[in-house]
Amino acid sequence: LAFCRGRIVRVPKGPLIRVLGTEVVIPCSVSDYDGPSEQNFDWEFSREADFVRIVSTWDSTFTSEEYQKRVGRGDIKLRRSSNDAVELVIRNIQPADQGRYKCSTPSTDATVQGNYDAEVQVKVISDGLSVSGSKARSSASLRLSEGDSFKLRCSAITTSPEHTHLHVTWQIKSGPVWQDILSLTHEGKFQPGPGYEERYRNGDIRLDTGANDTYWLTVSQVSSVDGGAYRCLVSEWVRGADSSWQKIQEKSVEIANVAIQRTDVVISTSNVSVTERDSLDLTCNITTDRSGIFQAEVMWYFSVSPDDTLSDAQVLLSMDHNSVVSDSTLISLSHVDRNSYRLLVRDVAVEDSGYYFCQAAVWVPLHNGSWQKVVERTSVPVNVVVTALEPDYEVFLNASKTPKFSDDPTELNCMIINAQDTEANIRFTVSWYYRQHLHSDDVVAEELLATMDADWTLLLGERSRERTQNGEIIFFKKAVDIFSLRIQWTSESDRGDYFCVISAWSKHRNNSWVKSKDVISPSVSIFWATQDYTLTVEAVKLKPFFVAGHTFEMTCKVSSKNIKTPRYSVLITAEKPLADQSNPNGTTRIISLNQDSVVRLEDWTDQARVDGVVLEKVQENEFRYRMYQTQISDAGLYRCVVTAWSPGGGGMWREAVNGLSNPIQIDFQTSGPVFNASVHSDNPTIYQGELADLLCVVTMEGVALEP
């Protein structure tokens, strides 16, 4: 094998049959060579015996004189396809170019082995191919509607002396380039172009042969993509010496320009706004220039989004091509004219707001009496807004109870007034709001106290939830058109502005409730001035002079300000002299009377005089204290300690303020010592004239004094 290996130069196996006036390309390649990768080539031609130099890749002086003009014009040239291959290109080949062509390669090998040239015979035959269109005119214009069919005719014949085959291709041009539709190859096979395979299998694209070498293209169910220029492209093929097929020439003729009138489906109006309970009127128009018999199939759809597909949308009503309409109570579909179909929706509601679109299909009759759908289109959705029929009413807020003090009740009434168009399918609910009252210009957001949903369920806000659950705040409906808010015991934190919102709800056909309107009331301010509590207590001694053993009596008169409906509790105290060891602290709590008029002995311990002290309520603001059988040990300063109470939440009493009266003094001192004197006789019975012996006994605090 190493001995036989060497350079090999190859050209096609001849003869090469080529058509007069066409371009001829003869390839030549070299392999198994030594030296540089890029090889040079020389081409020569011989009609009979001697070869004439044509062109070279490496020697510009190689060309003989008779070829210099053709080579200079570029009619003959070399085209390098790779480092080891070139093509000899001859434009507009003539009968004089028929003969033997030799391709040679100068040696770059270390040793001479193999072949350094190769020859091929070229045979030039006359042009016998004829391609034409309709006899009436070279190119026709067709104007069709979507779904129509059309046929185009092309005639192709050859009178070549060689045994050649024709390859016929129908092409369309709707853009910058021609696109294959369907071919009948030189081997007798049908070959659909890219994108036409399915239509070919369905029979919508056909290529038929007829008499007189005619080729018919039939296109059914045309659509907008079938519009454009049509041509018939015919190539002539011959089988070479190596049994391969070689294309020797190609011709084309434009047959027709086809325009497709698009069938459009549009809704006659764009965005629509209607009022609740009115009628919605939409028309679906089919735009087509179809003049023959056809019937339309129309289907109306509804969706809440313009991006919904047909499978997601709701079918409202449909009419088939036999004009049979599906049933509906509130919706009707009518055929207005040949191309218009009207949808009428009566008594629309808010839930009918959304996107409406129609889908229309065109049906044409066939020869066997059946109908065939030829085109189908869907309109652009139309946005329909149904405006709620709002009831007309006003809202007024007033305070039937306003607090003047803390813990007073507050009651607000939210009233619906001047209501109109409030029928059975209208329902009212209320929402209550609070806004803190500020002296500055700062803006404070309102706080939700409570709101009601459509089924009158009360939803509490954070501010009022706990107090409402405890019964301190009550929301109730006083009348059909009055909603009320009651604060049982108003605190200072409740001071501020209150307002209510009355919402109107409309009942829809599916028995659901949808809010249609909100009306806000003017605000009502709940406020009272807070002032310090004041309490004054005055003690008065009713008897200015008395002695031991007599009754001590004093009254306490109370006056207060800024206290709501006060009640008073009273405590009587006594400040004894420091020498009195019964109370080392100096102050004794004697007796008390609470706000409910219950009397209690406090630190009174004289068991001999348990009933010796009395405290009683003379009137709401006056109290009287009595102490019977006073003793010297009762001396001291007496006061009234008064506490004012105001009613608090839940029936409880709240301590407001304390007050202390002026002192009232009990003092038993006289101008001399206090003592007792008595007369005593040892012999009280004597005779007249006898001596009477009498003794005067002076005692002080039970002790007899010495005379």
From TrEMBL:
Protein's membrane topology: Single-pass membrane protein
Gene Ontology CC annotation, any one: membrane
PROSITE patterns, sorted: IG_LIKE
InterPro entries to which the protein is assigned, alphabetical: Ig-like_dom, Ig-like_dom_sf, Ig-like_fold, Ig_sub, Ig_V-set, IgSF_V-set/TM_domain
Domain Ig-like residues, every copy: 21-113, 146-254, 263-360, 391-521
Alphabetized Gene3D superfamilies for the sequence: Immunoglobulins
Cell compartments where the protein resides: Membrane
Keywords per UniProt: Disulfide bond, Immunoglobulin domain, Membrane, Repeat, Signal, Transmembrane, Transmembrane helix
PANTHER family xref list: PROSTAGLANDIN F2 RECEPTOR NEGATIVE REGULATOR, V-SET AND TRANSMEMBRANE DOMAIN-CONTAINING PROTEIN
Protein's UniProt name: FPRP regulator
Species annotation: Ramphastos sulfuratus
